[in-house]
Specification:
The protein is built from twelve helices and 21 strands. The chain is an alpha/beta fold. The strands form six sheets. Strands 1-12-7-2-3-4-13-21 form an eight-stranded mixed sheet, with helices on both faces. The chain has a five-stranded mixed sheet with strand order 17-16-20-18-19.
Length: 619
C-alpha cells in the first residue's frame, strides 16, 4: 500500500517498502482544517617597499587560490614597461646637498660618504628608488589583475556548482503568461525536494542505502506564484500522494519515452525523465505556465539551513518521530543541519501523521527562513555570505534558463520585492481518492478555484494591489460580426479526480449560437484543463479582437484569452472551473475565503504558528 494518511507506504521517503499501518485514513476535505498557528576580502595586498626578486612578491589570494598569485606571473610578459629601462634614466639635477655626503650618499666632490662614491652613488640611489617604484607598480597591477581574476574564477566556480536540466519534458506545454497593461508578467517557480540516495552523503542523511540506484521521488513540491506587479506571492504545496495524470514525457538524456498515466501519484513524476516531467505534470494539472524549477536534495537542505544560521520553529508538545529522527521538547527551537532535514521530513509526528501535516510544517519552516533572509541578521559577515553562495549553488538543480549565479541573483532580488505580509502559504485542497481512499488524495473543486485565482493572477489573500497599472490603450481592431466568427468549443472538465461533465461543449456551443455566433460548434475530442480559455492562433489584432468578443459574451475575464501556436482558429476550452451553467461564474470574496479555509493558509509574517504534535509521538 502506498503512503497516504497512514504513516507508511511504498512512497515513504524513510523506508520506501515499509508496510502501511492502514489505521489512519485521510480525513475528508470537508473536515475542519487544522491551521497551524558583498563579501569583503580579508587583508588587502600590501606591496613591499623594497625591490624583490622575481617570483617572490607578496601573494594576493582572497579565495585561497594559487592561480592568481603575483609570483606566478613572469614580469617579462609585461614589457614594454611603462617605465623606461634604467640605462635611459639620467639625473642631471644638483644633489640635495652637494657639499657633504651623508651615510650612504655621494659627496658633492665625488669622494663623499663612506658608503657611496659621490654623485654616482646618488644617481644609483635614485635609480634604486625608481626600481622600487617599478616593482610597486608591477606588483600592484598584478594584485588588481589577480583579485579581478580570482573573483571571476570564483563566479565561474559557483556556476559550475549548479546542475541544470530541461524545463519541460511534455509534448504539450501551456502558453506563457501574458503581460499586463504595464508590461509586467507573473512569475511561476516550481520548488522540488528530491529523496535521492544516489550520493553517499544523501544515503547517510536519508538512510535506505539499498535505494541508492532507484529513481528519486519528488516528495516535496511547491508552486511559487509571484504576481505580475510583485505585490504578493502565493505558495501552493501538493501532498506527495496526490494521484494525478502524469503526461507523456521523454527523457532528454537517453530518449526513453514514458507514456501518460493516471494511476500514479505526483511524486513519481520525477522518475519519468527528470524534473521537467514534474513541471509538465503541474502545467497539466493547473493550467499555469511554469517559468522555472529549482530542486534540492537532502544534503542541500542541511547546508542551506547551516548557511542562514538556523531556522526558528515551534512545537506545541514534546515530539519524537523515530522514523525521521526528530526529537524536540515543547516550545521554540532554532534548528539547523541534520535536525532541519528531520523537521522537513517528519510526517508521523505531526498532526494526524499524514503528508498533509508535513506540508504545514514545511510552510512554517519556509516562512521562518524567508523572515531570516529578509532581516539579514544571519548574513552580516562575508564568511556567511560565501557559505550561503556555496551551499545554495551546490544544493540546486535548476532549469537551463536559470543556470547561472547572475540569473539566480536577479530572481532573488525580484522575489525580495514582495512584502513578507503578502506571502501566503497554502496546501492544495484535497479529498480522499475514490480509487484508493486510505492511501491517496485528489484535488477538490476548491483546488480548481485556487488554481484559477493564480492563473488569473489574483491574490488569494483578498487584498487589492495598491499599484495600479496604466490603462491599456484601446485596440484599433474591431471584432467581426458574430455570425462571421467561427468558434470551436471543447470539453476540458475532466480531471484526475472526476470524469468530464457530459455535454459541456455542446451546451456552451449552443449558447454561443443563441448569442449570434452561428458558426460555433462543439468538438468531442476529450481535453483536461483546469481553467477555461479562449485561444487564437496568432498576434493578428483581428483574431485577438474576435477572441475577446467571445469571452465578453460569455462573461469570461480578459485574462482567459490566450494566444496559442497550436490553435487553428478561435477555440474555447471549457475547463474544470466551469462545470455548470452557460455564463462563466464570477469570483467573489466568499469564494476566496472558501479557498483559504480549504488550503490551510498561513501568512509568512505570522510568528505565532506552532505545530500540533501527533499524540502517539509524544515523549
Amino acid at each position: 500500500m502506498r503512503h497516504g494518511s497512514a504513516p507508511g507506504g511504498l512512497n515513504a521517503p524513510y523506508e520506501p517498502h515499509e508496510p502501511g499501518w492502514g489505521n489512519a485514513p485521510y480525513r475528508g476535505g470537508d473536515g475542519a482544517p487544522y491551521v497551524p498557528q558583498q563579501p569583503s576580502y580579508g587583508g588587502g595586498y600590501q606591496p613591499q617597499p623594497q625591490p624583490q626578486p622575481q617570483g617572490q612578491g607578496q601573494q594576493y589570494a582572497p579565495y585561497d587560490t594559487t592561480a592568481y598569485q603575483p609570483s606566478a606571473f613572469d614580469n617579462e610578459a609585461y614589457e614594454p614597461d611603462p617605465y623606461a629601462p634604467e640605462e635611459e634614466y639620467e639625473d642631471d639635477a644638483p644633489d640635495t646637498d652637494s657639499r657633504t655626503g651623508g651615510p650612504g650618499d655621494g659627496g658633492g666632490d665625488g669622494t663623499g660618504g663612506p658608503n657611496g662614491p659621490g654623485r654616482r652613488g646618488n644617481r644609483r640611489r635614485k635609480k634604486g628608488k625608481r626600481r622600487a617604484l617599478r616593482w610597486v607598480a608591477i606588483v600592484t597591477s598584478l594584485a588588481i589583475v589577480g583579485s579581478a581574476g580570482a573573483a571571476w574564477a570564483y563566479y565561474e566556480h559557483l556556476n559550475a556548482n549548479i546542475r541544470k536540466d530541461a524545463l519541460n519534458l511534455g509534448d504539450s506545454k501551456v502558453d506563457k503568461s501574458k503581460a499586463n497593461a504595464a508590461g509586467q508578467t507573473p512569475l511561476n517557480i516550481l520548488l522540488l525536494g528530491s529523496d535521492s540516495r544516489a550520493s553517499k552523503e544523501n544515503q547517510k542523511l536519508g538512510g535506505a542505502k539499498a535505494d541508492a540506484t532507484r529513481k528519486p521521488l519528488a516528495d516535496v513540491q511547491m508552486l511559487l506564484h509571484v504576481s505580475a506587479d510583485r505585490s504578493n506571492m502565493t505558495v501552493v504545496s501538493i501532498p506527495r500522494d496526490t494521484r494525478v495524470t502524469i503526461p507523456k514525457c521523454t527523457d532528454p538524456d537517453d530518449g526513453t519515452v514514458y507514456p501518460e498515466t493516471s494511476s500514479e501519484t505526483i511524486n513519481a513524476s520525477l522518475g519519468h525523465g527528470g524534473p521537467g516531467c514534474t513541471v509538465a505534470t503541474w502545467e497539466n494539472l493547473t493550467g499555469i505556465s511554469i517559468d522555472h524549477f529549482m530542486m534540492i536534495d537532502f544534503a542541500g537542505v542541511v547546508s542551506m539551513a547551516d548557511a542562514v544560521g538556523g531556522v526558528p520553529v515551534c512545537v506545541k508538545s514534546n515530539v519524537w518521530d523515530k522514523k525521521s529522527g526528530l526529537k524536540l521538547t515543547a516550545g521554540d527551537h532554532v534548528i539547523k543541519g541534520k535536525q532541519a532535514l528531520q523537521w522537513l521530513r517528519t510526517r508521523h509526528g505531526f498532526e494526524d501523521g499524514s503528508d498533509i501535516g508535513r506540508t504545514h510544517a514545511q510552510h512554517m519552516y519556509m516562512n521562518a527562513m524567508v523572515r531570516q533572509l529578509k532581516s539579514g541578521t544571519k548574513l552580516t559577515d562575508p564568511g556567511a555570505l560565501t557559505g550561503l553562495a556555496e551551499s545554495a549553488t551546490k544544493a540546486l538543480t535548476v532549469d537551463t534558463g536559470l543556470g547561472t549565479v547572475k540569473k539566480l541573483y536577479d530572481m532573488g532580488n525580484d522575489l525580495k520585492r514582495v512584502p513578507t505580509g503578502r506571502i501566503t502559504m497554502t496546501t492544495m485542497p484535497w479529498g480522499a481518492d475514490p480509487e484508493n481512499p486510505t492511501a491517496h488524495v485528489v484535488p477538490t473543486p476548491a483546488a480548481t478555484k485556487l488554481f484559477t485565482l493564480l492563473r488569473n493572477d489574483q491574490a488569494v489573500d483578498g487584498k487589492a494591489s495598491k499599484k495600479k497599472p496604466p490603462a491599456k490603450p484601446a485596440s484599433t481592431a474591431r471584432p467581426d460580426a458574430k455570425a462571421d466568427i467561427p468558434v470551436t468549443v471543447e470539453n476540458g472538465t475532466g480531471t484526475a479526480s472526476q470524469a468530464a461533465v457530459p455535454g459541456r461543449a455542446k451546451a456552451i456551443s449552443e449558447r454561443l449560437v443563441a448569442l449570434g455566433y452561428t458558426q460555433a460548434e462543439s468538438d468531442s475530442t476529450p481535453q483536461s484543463q483546469s481553467g477555461t480559455t479562449v485561444t487564437y492562433p496568432s498576434d493578428d489584432q483581428q483574431a485577438n479582437a474576435n477572441a475577446l468578443a467571445v469571452a465578453k459574451s460569455l462573461g469570461l475575464p480578459t485574462s482567459a484569452v490566450k494566444k496559442s501556436a497550436s490553435a487553428s482558429g478561435i477555440t474555447l476550452v471549457v475547463g474544470a472551473d466551469w462545470t455548470t451553467g452557460t455564463s462563466y461564474p464570477k469570483e467573489s470574496s466568499s469564494d476566496t475565503k472558501e479557498v483559504l479555509d480549504s488550503a490551510n493558509a498561513l501568512n509568512a509574517s505570522d510568528k505565532s504558528a506552532c505545530m500540533k504534535v501527533n499524540p502517539y509521538y509524544n515523549w
